[in-house]
Each structure stands twice: as C-alpha cells, then as structure tokens.
Amino acid sequence: MNHSVVSMDATMIQTKGLTRHFTVKKETVEAVRGIDLHVRRGELVALLGPNGAGKSTTLRMLTTLLPPTSGTAEVAGHDVVREQAAVRHRIGYIGQGNGAGHTQRGRDELVIQGRCYGMGRKAARARADELISALGLETVADRTVSTLSGGQRRRLDIAMGLIHAPDLLFLDEPSTGLDPQNRANLQEQILNLHTEYGTTVVLTTHYLDEADSMAERVIVVDHGRVIADDSPTQLKRDHAGDRITLTAGHTDDARRVADRARRSAGAEVTQSGTSVEIRVLGAPQLLPGLLVDLANDGVTVTGAEVARPTMDDVFLNLTGRSLREGGAEPADAGADGGADGGARAAADADGRTTQNQEIAA
Amino acid sequence: MSTTVAARETNTALTGTAGPNRRRPSLLHDTGTVFVRELLPVLRNPFSVVFTMVQPLVFLGLFGPLLSDFPGTGEGSALQWFVPGIVVMSCLFSGAFTGSNLLFELQTGSHERMLVTPLRRSALLIGRALKEIVPMVMQTVIIVAVCMPFGFELHLAGAALAVLILAVMAVGIGALSYSLALASKDQDWLFWTIQQTLLFPFLLLAGILLPLDNGPGWLRTLGDINPLTYVVDACRLLFNGEIAAAGVLQGAGAAAFLAALGLLVGIRSMRHST
Ligand SMILES: Nc1ncnc2c1ncn2[C@@H]1O[C@H](COP(=O)(O)OP(=O)(O)OP(=O)(O)O)[C@@H](O)[C@H]1O
Ligand SMILES: [Mg+2]
C-alpha cells in the first residue's frame, strides 16, 4: 500500500484533461471535454449542471466505471485506469440508478455489499444493522426491494454506499426522489460524515439549494466543461448580485427612485412601470439608507423587497441559460423588455427567487 | 429526543467503527459472494424456479403422450425416452432465460453498483453462472418426481451422473445468456430476439422433442454439430442406467465445451462491461 498517497498527501482527486466521447449513430458526443479537477482530502464538492452536462460521465470515470477517452485521473492516490482495484477499494459510489436488486431483500443486499468489500460475515451483518437503523429502514429492510417506495430504495442505496465506511464518497444525485424531510435528513447525514469524520464527498445534484447549502465548493459544469469553481458565497458574489425591487405609486416616482439608486456604487438599475429593480452587492445594508434618502427627497415607496442571489442566478449569468427551466434551452431574450440582457429577463419572467427550485428535467 | 443527539447516533453508524478489510479477497471469495447473492432470491422464493419450467412441463404433459410407439424413441416406454430430453430442455430454458435478470440489473443500476466494488469481473460472471446449477437440480427433481408415478424408471447412479453433466451445461448456457445480456445492455428487444431465435432451433436439432434419426440428411448433419444433441443422448443413456457407454463421455465433452465457451465469452464481456 502506498502510504504517501492517502495519509500524507492532501490530494484526493486529481484529473488532467479528463475527456470522454461517446459514439452514437456515427456521431461523436463530447460528454466531458478536458476537465482539470483538484479535490483535497476532506472537501465536500458539488457538481452542478443541467441534464446532459456530463456530471454522471465524470463521476463514472472517477469511479473506474468508464475509461476516459483521453486525459488522466488519480483518485485516492491511484490511477483510475491502471489501478482500478486499488481505487475501488477506497471509494464508495452511489449511482444515479437503484443499486439494490429488485428481487433481493434490502438486508441481504447490504450484507452482500459488505462481503463484496471483503468484510467478514459477522461484521457485514452488524454493519448492515447499524446502517438500517441509521437510515430508518428497520421496517422495510426484510422486504423485497421491488416493494419499496422510491425514497426507501434511495435510502437503501445510500446505506449500501456507506457499508465499508469509505474515505471518499461519490453520490450521483443522492436526493432525487426523496421527499423534503428525507432530503433534509440525508443532507444532514452527508454533512455529518463530512464534518465529523472528514469523509471527502463529491456529489452531483439537480437541486440548486442543495449545492448552495451543502457544498463548500460548487463546480458548475456545462457542455462537458467546468465553467465555474468556487464556494457558493463567492460564486454569488462574483456572478450575481442581490436584487432589490422597489415599487412606487407613480411612474414619475419610480423614475426618481431609479435615479437615486443609480448613485449607489456598482448598482445596475432597471425601471419598468412603477417598479424598479436594483442589482447590487450588499443589498440588506444598502436598502435602509436608500429608503431614508428617498423619504427625504419626498418620494413615496409603496413596496420594498430584497432577494439574495441563487445558484440559478449564477448559472444564468455564466451561461445565459436558466438551470431551472431545463437548462439546454437558451433563455428567451428580452422576454419582458429588460434592458440588461435576455438572461436576466428570463429569470424575472416567473418572478420567483426562492432558493428551493428544482432544475426541471 | 433532541436532534443533535439523533444526529450523533447516526454519525457513528454511518462511518462505522471498523474500517474495511483492505486485503483483496480471493477469486473464490468473490465468486462465492456473487453466487450467494444470486442464490438468495431463489432460496427466499423457491417457487420461482417453476416459472421457466412451464414450457417443458407443457411439452411433457401434452406432447409426451403422442410419442408412444413413435419410431426411434427406443423400446421401453416413451416416457423413458422423453423425460431425459425434457430435463435438458428445462435446463436449457432456465439457463437461456437467466440473462434477463442481468439485463434488468444493467438497466436499474444494480450491476453498476457491483462493478464499483472490488469484486473481480470474472467472479461477477462465474458466480452468476454457477448459480444456474441450483435451479437445474431443483427442476430435474421436480420433473423426475412428477413422472415416476406414470411409470418413469429411475436409475439413481445414472441420474446423478446426468445431473453432473447437466450442471456443467447449465453453467455454459447461463454464461452465454449473460453474455447476450451484456451485449444487449439497454436494448431488451435485442436480447429477446436473439434468445428466442436461437432457442427453438437448438431445441429441435437436439432431438429433444422428436428423434432426428428419420429426418433428411441435412437435418441430421445440423443435429450432429449441435452440442446439445450429445448432452441429450448422454442423459438418455444415463437415466436408463447405462453408465458405461461411449455416448456418456461424448455428452460430458459437449457440456464441457459449452461451459468453456460460455465462460470464455462471458468473462470477456464482463471485463468490457461499463
Ligand atoms: N453510454 C452513453 N452512450 C452515449 N451517450 C452517452 C452515454 N452516457 C452519456 N452520454 C451522453 O453524454 C452526455 C452527458 O451525459 P451525462 O449522463 O454525463 O449527463 P449528466 O450531467 O449526468 O445529466 P443528468 O443531469 O441528466 O443526469 C449526454 O449528452 C448523454 O446523452
Ligand atoms: Mg447524471
């Protein structure tokens, strides 16, 4: 065993020009195009991107399931092509599909999974029991998998991926199909794994809020390329400001609101009718002063709203497309006549800025 | 209960107290693990072995009675000639069908999950193929038990040897069926089309339903190059208690050929499985 690799070196994943092409009906699909990735031991990373961005393909290469077309990847200190067995021993993988066989029973699958990793019969059984109670599967563990609900099956998958307590865990859309409560539970469990045991976690997600709230680092993937890689806070700071929406009683007042707002440093202001939208950093700090100034000017503001940027705003800004609206479609430029580009206009079209949007499939 | 406490309990459970065994298990251990996994649903639901037996049993009940005094079916009762063939047919059908289980797992993600574990690729195939022996034995016992009240004579030693040969054949047919599943991947139709297209010609050309002795020359030639023919002949000899016959060796050889071919192709396909 190569001691320098896992224990001393802080690198958990290192890829260079990782590329994967598929040939479908004589046409080449460039699923992943030269990804350079560096993940340190103990990081929690989310790969965020629309359908077909290449998230699963990337994960499948990192987990030895798929040989790269070109480029290299070292995972847990071992090359994914030349040292597959060593990589497999050190990682856990929870794929996008269902890991448990439909004709099997959950508990049987868990024990078998442990045996696959070389655990003894007794140890595997004890570990299965632990995970069954940790994931709340007591009542269904001895049923045939095909009779479980989607969420129960998903939790069983998670349990299987954790059976050997891997140092590095890959999860492909772990919370898809879970109800909000189970999603929250799962997120908490993943976070615990990460914070208290230093497990390195790489997950892909369709949930914008999941990437936002869970990951320390979000890697935005689009068309097989990494287009941004930073902490959610930094990404939002760099790629999307806060948004203040002020409503005035008259269009005239609205114009005066807009004029006043333009004096704030870095503010992008758009007026439409009686409503004024201000894109700016640090909106919560800015707004009280702005309202006082406007009151002093004798302008009546009838409504004020502050929205913090979402990961969707970030994606929108980076690509001009909304992740939420299904990704691949270009945003409808100028949908509501917005002055600052089609992307933003599309984001505003449905007026929702909550952070709980699921990317439409 | 406070949430923090619950989370903490959860924690230890999630990471576990003992790390995994980092020493790579042997091929035998890997194969055993896969074998047990495949066997568990059969043990949990033994009735499932009957599903693939429907056709052989229909032929036994509705076709067998037509065979009395049919030329080429031997001197004894037609049952004595027909039953060994039905046993081979049942083994052939259940083996050919088994790939569909893998086909399904290829599509759901169960197979992918197994591929990420340190299990050897060869074990993934061998373990599955070896499991075919179990339903084959169960089915043979059922067929023989059903036929004995109707005058089928059991020669125990010969029957045991026949089961041994059939076990080897079951591994081969199972492995070939798995190879077909791996090649078909997400194209169900491909699997079923090829499987159904091959199944009946092999069945008929092995002289299972009717003897080929009086058929045209080309048909007999095709029968002669069908490995199943030799397995069927060997089983007929053995179930009649004729252990020391040359045909027995030929049957064993044909079964071994099928097993070798199946494992070779199957392990190759499994290695390329993604
Ligand atoms: N086995 C395959 N054969 C052919 N094309 C493939 C294969 N796997 C993936 N692709 C293609 O590669 C591209 C990336 O697919 P991938 O599954 O990695 O996307 P993803 O980001 O995981 O999407 P999703 O969010 O829908 O899961 C897609 O265009 C897809 O059609
Ligand atoms: Mg995917």
Describe the protein's architecture and organization.
Chain A has 361 residues and is α/β, with parallel strands linked by helices. Chain A contains 13 helices and 14 strands. Chain A folds into two domains: 233 residues, Rossmann fold (3-Layer(aba) Sandwich), CATH 3.40.50; 65 residues, Alpha-Beta Plaits. In chain A, the strands form three sheets. Chain A has a six-stranded mixed β-sheet, with helices on both faces. Chain A has a four-stranded antiparallel β-sheet with strand order 2-1-4-5, covered by helices on one side. Chain A has a four-stranded antiparallel β-sheet with strand order 12-13-11-14, with helices on one face. In chain A, helix 7 links the parallel strand 7 and strand 8. The longest helix of chain A has 18 residues. The N terminus and C terminus of chain A are likely disordered. Chain B has 274 residues and is mainly alpha-helical. Chain B has one domain. Helices cover 73% and strands 0% of the residues of chain B. The longest helix of chain B is centred in the middle third of the chain and has 31 residues. In chain B, 47% of the residues are buried. The N terminus of chain B is likely disordered. At the A-B interface, helix 3, helix 4, helix 5, helix 6 and helix 7 of A face helix 1, helix 2, helix 4 and helix 5 of B. Magnesium ion binds next to helix 2 of chain A.
